[in-house]
Predict the structure.
Amino acid sequence: MVSKGLVIIFVSLTYFGFSQDFTNGGSFTGNIESTFQYLNNDTLIGANQPAQKGLINSYMNVFYTNKNFKAGMRLESYLPRIQGYPNRFDGTGIGMRYIGYVNKLVDVTLGSFYEQFGAGLSLRTYEDRALGYDNLLDGARLIVRPYKGIVLKGVYGYQRLSFQQGQIVHGDGIVRGVDAEINFKETFDSLLNDNWDFGLGFSFVSKFQADNDDALILPQNVGAYGGRFKARYKNINFNGEYILKEQDPSNDNSKIYNYGHAAIFNLGYSKKGLGILLSGKSVDNMSYRSDRTKDLQDVFINYLPALNKTHTYNLVATLYPYATQPMGEVAYQAEVLYTIKKGTKLGGKYGASVNLNVSTTYRPVHHVSGFSPLDSTGVAYSARPFDKSDSMYWRDINFNITKKINKKLSFIFSYFNININNDVAKISNDAKGMISSHIGVIETSFKINKKHSIRSEIQALFVEKIKKGLPNAGGINDKGNWGTILLEYTVSPHWSFGFMDQYNYGNPTESKRVHYPIFTFGYVKDATRFSIYYGRQRAGLFCVGGVCRFVPASNGLTFSFTQSF
């Protein structure tokens, strides 16, 4: 629960700072966000009206700085929470608060904080409001910069598990961690004019949770540790990280005693008009939570980034998103961005850009020879980094061409071929095995004049038939084909109007060939924004960076307000 003493200290100090604002230069910044839903029953899409009819999420962040002093807090209100948010969000109260001191040498924070070591493979705490995700640490953090290019970090605290009756509820386990990083180019002056840039980092994270299992002897302290590097030579960048996790029997891994690992690398090349990126990731048994009994997205200590392109088009982003598999996956990604020069036959007067992206994910190989389920060690198999099987979880091949025709008209032509193993991802109850889809998108932007513009999208998704050897071979897989049309009209700098309709015209069940229309309106002035949405929203997964939450079907009005100060 929130410490009342810490809140009193925060209020006292911020009040004192406010009273000294004009003489000491203290300042307040922050933002407000509120989202209200009024929902209707819609039996056609399975949308239910809640008993309260109206739902609302509200947040207000306030940050104060005065010379070396800093403080902040976030008030949250769920009366009740909007649809799709976890049921552990309830009430009104303080969901985050901290006080701290910072100078050139140290940065000290007491209270709530977010932190990341390296790529996050060992530790990443963050908030994503769109996902209803918040795994902040409550305790203490110390950052020390003893010399140029050297950063030392230490964290200690409990994770936020839920927010109930207006108070933070912590997870059962406590998290401790240290991290060290050095950038050689900044530390050693002799390298400042060199074409090389090189850095190293090391991290160690440990969790403690009491052994409360009567049947097993569970490790109470579980560590995760490893190193990382980054290097640049002229136009070439290369970075990587490897983390080893100690034995951590949990609900996620059926309480086996295997070690876990996570490895990631990125190799990039860039120059004017050309960018190339190659990435790889290997994960096995890397579910790392401060409470071994939790599931879904609760109290994850670490973060395993999805190695695929983040899509924004409606059909591509919402129908077949891929969620990272913390218990094991081997993934690769390659991307090329090329700009066709102006004045060439292909580039024309304004030039053009071409983007090609390929990502794929496979099940890792588990070597079970020599391991027995009766083995007293509890180790079930052995696994090596980047040792993949032939069992594919995901593949995405996509490209787009951006072309400006004249000062007023431009196009983006896109194609996506997405294959997803529904037996692993479990995104649909109607699908069998591998879902293979082809998606085409034509986006058009037209500038009527300096203030008025129109943008449109025409999207079509085609699902391949069920392959031979599977039940109902030759039939329609999942929900069949989809189409989406979107129109947006903008009056700069304040007004915007939009309409989108998603239509499942290819559903094998005729009664389920449903339209999902939605009307939007927006008004922006300086740091204030109002948005209104009215229409249908289909049920499905909403994902950001490989982390997903389920959103139920809805029909109704959504009003949102944001303000920064």
Q: What stands out?
A: DSSP finds five helices and 30 strands in the chain. The two ends are 29 Å apart (CA to CA).
